[in-house]
């Protein structure tokens, strides 16, 4: 229907199998629709660690629910364990993946990851920052390649302790 709407012939040789390829692509990039990202925190470890845990530069991609074009970037996920409850580091990246693999808004991904972590890990605090380039701003509309959108969700101790929040931001900024 899209091909016809833009005046293309869907029966043209190069386009005959395009609808099936597009359907498979959307199935792959929307795989998070049928997943519960919170399951990644069903198993936690008891490790007497009560200081900052940060996984930064987690690459992710998603699709803008307003235009159905991609946006992609990096997520930085930090938490402050409570009572020695820590998650496997890969689980932070898996949650970001599952939440982002559906038609989305960057703001919602950021908030959802933070809320899942607060609920499932019961940490003293969580801080999630996403930096992404949106194709809806790059290839259409305002046409501003390279413009990045930054969103954050700050919960618990990171909201009230400026020194702790500054530590996370400093670690994200510097390698």
UniProtKB/TrEMBL annotation:
- Broadest EC class? hydrolase
Task: Give the UniProt entry's GO cellular component terms.
Answer: cytoplasm
An example of a GO molecular function for this protein is: GTP binding
* Gene Ontology biological process terms, A to Z: one-carbon metabolic process; tetrahydrobiopterin biosynthetic process; tetrahydrofolate biosynthetic process
| Positions with a binding annotation for Zn(2+) | 64, 67, 136
Which domain of life does this protein belong to? Bacteria
InterPro entries to which the protein is assigned, alphabetical: GTP-CH-I_C/QueF, GTP-CH-I_N, GTP_CycHdrlase_I, GTP_CycHdrlase_I_CS, GTP_CycHdrlase_I_dom
Which keywords belong to this entry?
GTP-binding, Hydrolase, Metal-binding, Nucleotide-binding, One-carbon metabolism, Zinc
Q: Where is the GTP cyclohydrolase I domain?
A: 1-172
Q: In which pathway does it act?
A: Cofactor biosynthesis; 7,8-dihydroneopterin triphosphate biosynthesis; 7,8-dihydroneopterin triphosphate from GTP: step 1/1
Might you give the EC number(s) for this enzyme?
3.5.4.16
- Which catalysed reactions does the entry list for this protein? GTP + H2O = 7,8-dihydroneopterin 3'-triphosphate + formate + H(+)
Q: Which HAMAP family match?
A: FolE (MF_00223)
Give the quaternary structure.
Answer: Homopolymer.
The family note in this entry says: Belongs to the GTP cyclohydrolase I family.
Give the protein name, as stated in the record: GTP cyclohydrolase 1
Name of the coding gene: folE
